Amino acid sequence: MEFVVHSYCLKGARQEPLLPPVSLTPTASTLTVAELIRLTVAEQIAALSVQHWLAHVSMREVLDRQYLSERDILRQASEGAVIMPQACAPADLDVGVEVERALRGFESRAFRVLHNGVMLQRLDETIELSPPSTLAFIRLVPLLGG
């Protein structure tokens, strides 16, 4: 079964998407909150990596096409072909490190996890996933002035 996890940031009365929604296909229908966080963070990193890589490559191609110097074009032509520079890959994130940050963030109440509208309290708490389970990660942002 596939489940979608939505991530939001609550700023006062406003609710804004924080990260793109991600789809999970857990191997079991019963998970702990820690397992849910691990799966979600890994999928979020994968989704963000693709999104940012595509944006980076697109920007690099446009800039290289626009600003490839005449000298570079002539030099490359003398070598047989004019080739646009290839964009380099952005640095990889360490999924394990990011999962640990997320687990600490949950424990310190920096964000909450809701399953079918119920706020989960502990990393070892188990949840039963079944359609139409709704899952949300909510980032809490304190109001100015306390």
Describe the structure.
The protein has 146 residues and is an alpha+beta fold. It has one domain (3-141). Helix content is 39%, strand content 27%. The protein is built from 3 helices and 7 strands. The chain has helices at residues 33-67, 70-78, 95-107; strands at residues 3-11, 14-24, 30-32, 111-115, 118-119, 126-128, 135-141. The strands form 2 sheets. The chain has a 5-stranded mixed beta sheet, covered by helices on one side. It has a two-stranded antiparallel sheet with strand order 3-6. Strand 1 (3-11) and strand 2 form a beta hairpin. Helix 1 crosses helix 3 (95-107). The longest helix has 35 residues, at 33-67. The two termini are 42 Å apart. The model has no long low-confidence stretch (mean pLDDT 82).
Question: Could you outline the blueprint of secondary structure elements for this entry?
Answer:
Blueprint (H helix, E strand, L loop, with lengths): L2 E9 L2 E11 L5 E3 H35 L2 H9 L16 H13 L3 E5 L2 E2 L6 E3 L6 E7 L5
Parallel strand pairs: 1-7
Antiparallel strand pairs: 1-2, 3-6, 4-5, 4-7
Helix pairs in contact: 1-3
The biggest beta sheet reads: 5 strands, mixed
**Class computed from helices, strands and strand pairing:** alpha+beta
**Cα radius of gyration in angstroms:** 21 Å
User: What's the pLDDT, averaged over the residues?
Assistant: 82
Q: Helices and strands, in N-to-C order?
A: EEEHHHEEEE
Strand arrangement, largest sheet?
2-1-7-4-5
Strand content: 25-35%
Contiguous helical run count: 3
Proportion of helical residues = 25-40%
Residue stretches low in confidence (pLDDT < 50, at least 5 long) are: none
General shape: elongated
SS elements, strand count: 7
In total, how many domains does the architecture comprise? 1
Q: Please give the alpha-carbon distance between the first and last residues.
A: 42 Å
